[in-house]
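Notebook B, p. 112. Complex prediction, attempt 2.
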Amino acid sequence: MWLEILNNVRSRKKAIKFPKTFQKSPDEVIETVTPVKKMNKVFGKSLRIRQVDAGSCNACEWECNMLTNPIYDVQRFGVDFVPSPRHADVILATGPVSRQMELALKKTYIAMPEPKLVISCGDCALDGGIYKGSYATRDGVNNVLPVNCHIPGCPPPPKTIVKELLKLMRGISSGSYPPKGS
Ligand code: SF4
């Protein structure tokens, strides 16, 4: 491997070839439609979540943090949080999407492998919430990414988050995706 890298440096050849998706603009990639059948096959009975704070007040994050404590213990359902979008099935975004976080949110989505889902968590993530109409926000995740499921509340209590995640998982595994009522 080291020899290959050395040869690449000597020949000034690019050692890393980026996939074609990186050559597209974020908006082009985001319009990709995920086939439902493929999704059921890949996700199986587990769900890996990449959480993104897109300008929230941080209370939604506190509630999400509770999910992995011994009381809610969301890992028993096959749900867990991952530090990298490369390992995630789902992006869970909180906050109204501040303009500073818009690009980061899009890039996180693009970095996730297909198939992938988007969950908006909290009232701000739905339509901007208390920040709605502000010049500094995009008034909700739906204006930036294709949202599959919304978790209501300000902030949503851990019980509601677990309930909505399980509803989503049930919907995926039973093939009735998207689940009714989401
Ligand atoms: S929904 Fe409520 S708790 Fe969550 S980020 Fe917005 S203001 Fe904060």
